[in-house]
């Protein structure tokens, strides 16, 4: 199969836009009683069909908790998450997570990793295998199909993981700081690469990052989160035309305006969390004292 | 293929690692030879080492022994016991360890008992197992089994419990069933620990089988086949009783070589079944 035929037979292009996700009043606490720690508080937002929503917030603000709930690994303490109106109750291959660092299976070759999902569901058909070939070619790993993850570079591992998710044709792709830990050059290449992939793929995407430039470059909408307990602080639309170029973003006035707005909000949140550093301990003592008097 | 192997062998012989090994063994042998001959060579005996038969004498003894059929029977008997005990330990230890790692309930029930039994040295089991098992052969095999069993189980539990939780999450969300997760995630992820447990375990098995043979008198084969029929442990013990010190050392060296071969074979198999660890 040559490249043109491949493009014609492309299963990526023939895909739909994915689902709509509605997160309503979701809260999540760990622990019980007075010792409960509220990580996510009354969080509401939408992931629009076919759009790329980027969530950005201070580190350790409960973004990963939200991701685990969206993926169905954890249930919210209160509130609901719905996909096209149906409640999300557990993990499923309609919502796939691309994890921070690599979660490729070290004991499987690149090809076996990519084929993991279809094989798990007994869908190892000729069409799926053709799609795997297409994806291998698309992520530039066709000559690395037999290599183990440890034999791939950091960037290659991320691309293999993207392919491993995409073969399942998920309605929603959830990416948890996927380019974290890559060197600056590789990161930039991966961002451009990923943007192309998204523009072709156009599925509902939830992308979590701490990098404001990455957010603006990729996003249709940016959710700015508060510190723990996590809440949506602001929603910024990024109406820059696609396809975008990394260099355009740095020179574009609109992009810069968005950046300034986002940075000032993030700065505010970061200052709050600094100030709360000592207050957290005070809160704990306070809660404990109340518990003692109650007894 | 053959050429690549030859190249590899040649570069190994020319390499530093090989010569360091040669120097190490040569120095050890020279020290031993000089020490054990010190009385006749220097007129005074070095402490301790002078009591040991010289390596040349041991080598002489070994050349005699390898022509002796009963020595090979001893070696074969010990090897068989190691093999039996080790295989039984793998066959029972791996599923048990996996079950303990996978099921919290089963872990809660079985781990306390396991942890009480684990520190008991295998040799402390010898009298009890002689009473418990109908034949001496079985009691030796049982003690040998214990030697490898606990190490294998502990390694399997440790390996299975340290699997990255994201692997389970990823597999689960891609549609894996419980059985699929066990087969394609837990099993391969635990394989490296199983290999480590097996390699360490087989060494312990050799240590235990020899001691068990000494204590229990070489098993049933010992009484039937005569002095040399009871395994290498009994062979050494018999040499001691008969006062043949060169035979003792020759027997010890045979065990060392046998243990080395067992570990080397297991390491080879281990490398073969966990190819993702060595390729880079």
What does this entry look like structurally?
Chain A is an alpha/beta fold. Chain A is built from 10 helices and 10 strands. Chain A has helices at 3-8, 63-71, 110-114, 116-120, 126-138, 154-166, 184-201, 212-218, 246-251, 253-294, and strands at residues 21-30, 37-47, 52-56, 78-83, 86-87, 95-98, 172-176, 204-209, 221-225, 232-237. In chain A, the strands form 2 sheets. Chain A has a 6-stranded mixed beta sheet, with helices on both faces. In chain A, strands 2-1-4-5 form a 4-stranded antiparallel beta sheet, with helices on one face. In chain A, helix 8 crosses helix 10. Chain B has 280 residues and is mostly helical. Chain B is globular. The chains are: A alpha/beta (295), B mainly alpha (280). Chain A binds chain B through residues 68, 71-73, 91-93, 95-97, 99, 103, 105-108, 116-117, 120-121, 147-151, 164, 168, and chain B through 164, 166-167, 169-177, 180, 184-185, 188-189, 191, 274-276, 279-280.
Low-pLDDT stretches of chain A: 291-295
For the biggest sheet of chain A, the summary is: 6 strands, mixed
The rounded Rg of chain A comes to 21 Å
Mean pLDDT of chain B: 86
**What kind of oligomer do you see?**
heterodimer
Secondary-structure element pattern of chain A, one letter each: HEEEHEEEHHHHEHEHEEHH
The N- and C-terminal alpha carbons of chain B lie at a distance of 20 Å
Q: Biggest interface and which pair forms it?
A: A-B, 27 and 23 residues
User: Spans of chain B with pLDDT under 50 lasting ≥5 residues?
Assistant: 220-229
**Helix proportion of residues of chain B, in percent?**
over 70%
CATH level-four homologous superfamily name of the largest domain in chain B: MetI-like
Assign the structural class of chain B, choosing from mainly alpha, mainly beta, alpha/beta, alpha+beta, or little secondary structure: mainly alpha
Q: How many strands in all of chain A?
A: 10
> Quick one: biggest sheet of chain B?
none
Secondary-structure element pattern of chain B, one letter each: HHHHHHHHHHHHHH
What is the rounded distance between the termini of chain A? 75 Å
| Percent range for β-strand residues of chain B | under 5%
CATH architecture of the largest domain in chain B: Orthogonal Bundle
């Amino acid at each position: 199969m040559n490249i043109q035929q491949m493009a014609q037979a492309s299963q990526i292009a023939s895909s739909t836009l994915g689902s709509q996700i509605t997160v309503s009043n979701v809260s999540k606490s760990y622990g019980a009683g007075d010792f409960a720690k509220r990580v996510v508080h009354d969080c509401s937002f939408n992931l629009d069909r076919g759009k790329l929503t980027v969530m950005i917030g201070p580190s350790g603000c409960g973004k990963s908790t939200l991701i685990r709930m969206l993926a169905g690994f954890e249930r919210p303490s209160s509130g609901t998450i719905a996909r096209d109106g149906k409640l999300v109750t557990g993990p499923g291959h309609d919502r796939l997570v691309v994890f921070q660092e690599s979660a490729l299976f070290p004991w499987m070759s690149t090809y076996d990793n990519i084929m993991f999902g279809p094989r798990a569901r007994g869908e190892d058909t000729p069409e799926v295998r053709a799609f795997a070939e297409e994806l291998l070619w698309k992520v530039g790993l066709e000559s690395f199909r037999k290599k183990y993850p440890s034999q791939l570079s950091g960037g290659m591992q991320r691309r293999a993981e993207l392919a491993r998710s995409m073969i399942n044709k998920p309605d929603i792709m959830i990416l948890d700081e996927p380019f974290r830990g890559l060197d600056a050059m590789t990161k930039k290449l991966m961002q451009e690469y990923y943007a192309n992939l998204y523009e072709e793929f156009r599925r509902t995407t939830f992308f979590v990052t701490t990098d404001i430039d990455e957010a603006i470059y990729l996003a249709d909408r940016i959710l700015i989160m508060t510190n723990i307990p996590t809440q949506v602080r602001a929603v910024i639309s990024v109406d820059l035309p696609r396809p975008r170029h990394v260099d355009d973003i740095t020179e574009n006035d609109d992009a810069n305006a968005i950046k300034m707005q986002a940075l000032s909000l993030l700065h505010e949140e970061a200052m709050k969390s600094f100030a709360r550093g000592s207050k957290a301990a005070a809160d704990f003592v306070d809660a404990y004292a109340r518990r003692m008097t109650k007894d | 293929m053959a050429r690549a192997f030859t190249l590899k062998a040649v570069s190994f012989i020319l390499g530093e690692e090989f010569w360091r090994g040669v120097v190490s063994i040569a120095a050890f042998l020279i020290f031993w030879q000089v020490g054990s001959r010190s009385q006749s060579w220097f007129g005074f005996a070095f402490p301790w080492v002078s009591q040991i038969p010289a390596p040349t004498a041991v080598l002489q003894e070994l050349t005699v022994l390898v022509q002796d059929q009963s020595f090979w029977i001893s070696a074969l008997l010990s090897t068989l016991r190691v093999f039996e005990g080790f295989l039984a330990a793998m066959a029972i230890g791996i599923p048990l360890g996996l079950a303990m790692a996978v099921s919290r309930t089963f872990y809660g029930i079985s781990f306390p008992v396991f942890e009480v039994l684990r520190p008991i040295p295998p040799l402390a089991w010898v009298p009890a197992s002689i009473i418990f098992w109908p034949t001496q052969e079985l009691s030796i095999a049982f003690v040998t089994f214990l030697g490898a069993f606990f190490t294998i189980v502990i390694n399997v539990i440790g390996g299975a419990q340290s699997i990255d939780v994201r692997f389970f999450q990823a597999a689960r969300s891609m549609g894996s069933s419980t059985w699929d997760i066990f087969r394609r995630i837990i099993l391969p992820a635990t394989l490296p620990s199983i290999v480590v447990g097996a390699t360490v375990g087989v060494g312990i098995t050799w240590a235990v089988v020899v001691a068990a043979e000494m204590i229990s008198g070489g098993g049933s084969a010992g009484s039937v086949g005569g002095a040399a029929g009871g395994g290498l442990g009994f062979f050494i013990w018999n040499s001691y009783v008969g006062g043949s010190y060169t035979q003792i050392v020759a027997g010890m060296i045979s065990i060392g070589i046998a243990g080395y071969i067992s570990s080397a074979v297991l390491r080879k198999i281990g490398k073969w079944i966990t190819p993702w660890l060595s390729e880079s």
